[in-house]
Design brief:
Blueprint lengths: L2 E12 L2 E12 L3 E6 L5 H8 L7 E6 L2 E2 L5 H6 L2 E4 L11 H6 L5 E2 L2 E2 L1 H16 L17 H15 L5 E5 L7 H16 L3 E5 L6 H4 L2 E6 L2 E7 L5 H9 L17 E10 L6 E6 L3 E5 L6 H9 L4 E8 L3 E4 L3 H5 L6 H6 L10 H15 L15 H15 L3 E5 L7 H16 L3 E5 L3 H7 L2 E6 L2 E2 L3 E2 L5 H9 L3
Parallel strand pairs: 3-10, 3-11, 6-9, 9-10, 15-19, 15-20, 17-18, 18-19
Antiparallel strand pairs: 1-2, 1-4, 4-5, 7-8, 11-12, 13-14, 13-16, 20-21, 20-22
Length: 482
């Protein structure tokens, strides 16, 4: 196949920080090309260069043989390159049509050409929905759509706004999707590629690659360390290239003796969800909650932490409680503040706080979690998504809470960092902490939890030992097929 996108020796620095030190990548027309690497490897910076948000310092980028140097995201789209970022940027109060056309509405002398706009929207929706055309329509409010459908709207917008979209970049597209929605996304990606669009697929879920990608490129520390065909490449090979070393064991679980009950929940109900939930969590235990997106798992954790109202039931907690939010950008971090402030602000030594105390306390957690940053004074928004997640975890470590409520603790984190987080969960349980873990990644729950319960449509089922569950059984229970 003829190369559509060629990248040679691209570099980019932000002040003294080198984000890219020499990236090479070649992707053909109609190819799904996976871009892999640990958090901080430079993937996000490369996507910003291709999307026109940043300009490279050196190196060459060409598109269909012509130099590609967009000066803005709009210019990148006009040249046929569009990016769908991990954090969706839709306006919930607008319709599907309004979101797709936002900023590129066809108009003459300020008067909208509505028929032309609707034709463009219908074509984009037909492309992303395929056989499921009619699942939602142009006049539906985005705020009324479920997570998987919002992802489809974001992709439809990317296709509609990029003139004859030649390269579509998807950044962690399945990180917030349930299994059935992820399967539909894979089918969509393959349809788009079959029509001739090149897809750059950025992901940390290596198990997805055989289902969706043709080739791969791995980045580490801002440079390309390898490329190849998906066929014939094992997940272990990719992990070694990403981490620069072998990951001996992904899941770590030390056998512990469960202690006293520190959290007892009886028939609790929220304003809308959960409908009814009961559970008992003990010291030294990791209790997992599985379920489809929208089942009420996040609402349960927010209710337990006191963020959402409780309309029924009782909660007894014996010890301090901390919550890791699934929405790290919206409510988990203060992005404009420093890493040190994010780690320490929830637990200060008194009314007067010395900056040196903040830096020293944060340094300890930065080393403990291997957070890649310029130091405690770095702003949280400057970090990659995975390193931001580690900062949110560092805050709970600093608080030294007894009960950990973890909502999607490894979302957006690379394989090596996942192994590190799993070891941390194991160490906390061994120290007598109690952990309640919500995750959409079923192998994660099976690997780290002692017991697992399933939430379906707001109802929490009984907990059973993790060894009694399989991925198939958890999916069947969550979907109501059991």
């Amino acid at each position: 196949m003829t190369a559509r996108l060629e990248i040679h020796g691209v570099t980019k620095a932000f002040g003294a920080t080198r984000a890219l030190g020499g990236v090479d990548l070649s992707a053909a027309r109609g190819e799904v090309h996976a871009v892999l690497g640990e958090n901080g490897a430079g993937k996000s910076t490369l996507m910003k260069l291709l999307g026109g948000a940043e300009a490279p310092d050196a190196g060459e980028i060409s598109l269909d043989g012509a130099p590609f140097h967009p000066r803005s995201p709009r210019e990148a789209r006009e040249l046929g390159v569009s990016v769908v970022y991990q954090e969706l940027s839709l306006c919930a109060h607008l319709t599907v049509e309004e979101n797709i056309l936002l900023g590129v509405e066809p108009a003459t002398a300020g008067v909208l050409r509505r028929a032309e706009g609707r034709t463009k929207v219908d074509a984009a929706l037909a492309k992303v929905l395929g056989d499921a055309h009619g699942r939602f329509g142009a006049t539906d409010l985005v705020g009324d759509l479920k997570s998987g459908d919002r992802q489809l709207v974001e992709i439809a917008r990317a296709l509609a706004q990029a003139e004859g979209c030649r390269v579509l970049i998807l950044d962690e597209p399945t990180s917030s999707l349930a299994a059935d929605d992820a399967t539909r996304l894979f089918e969509l990606v393959k349809r788009i590629a079959k029509d001739g669009t090149t897809v750059l697929y950025v992901t940390h879920f290596l198990e997805e690659l055989p289902r969706v990608a043709d080739r791969w490129t791995v980045m580490r520390d801002g440079i390309t360390v390898g490329s190849g065909d998906i066929e014939g490449t094992s997940a272990n090979d990719l992990v070694e290239k990403m981490a620069g070393r072998a990951i001996e064991q992904l899941f770590t679980r030390t056998k512990t003796t469960r202690g006293e009950a520190v959290l007892e929940v009886k028939d609790v109900a929220g304003a809308s969800k959960p409908e009814r939930a009961s559970l008992t969590l003990r010291r030294g235990e990791v209790l997992g909650i599985a379920g489809l997106v929208g089942a009420g798992r996040t609402e349960l954790l927010r209710l337990l932490f006191g963020l959402d109202p409780r309309r029924a039931g009782t909660i007894e907690a014996r010890g301090t409680m901390g919550l890791l939010s699934e929405d790290r950008k919206g409510e988990g971090l203060l992005l404009a503040r420093t890493v040190g402030e994010n780690v320490t602000l929830s637990k200060l030594p008194g009314f007067v706080v010395r900056p040196s105390w903040t830096r020293d306390a944060a340094e300890t957690r930065i080393r403990e979690l291997s957070i890649k940053c310029a130091g405690p004074d770095a702003r949280a928004f400057e970090l990659s998504g995975g390193n931001q997640q580690k900062v949110a975890l560092a805050r709970l470590l600093h608080e030294d809470v007894d009960i950990w409520l973890l909502d999607e603790p490894t979302r957006g984190i690379d394989v090596a960092s996942k192994a590190q987080i799993y070891r941390l969960i194991d160490e906390l349980a061994s120290r007598g902490k109690a952990l309640l873990v919500v995750s959409s990644h079923l192998p994660e729950l099976l690997g780290v939890c002692d017991r697992i319960c399933v939430m379906r449509r707001g109802l929490l089922g009984p907990a059973r030992p993790a060894g009694e569950w399989t991925e198939k059984a958890l999916l069947a229970e969550a979907s109501g097929a059991a």
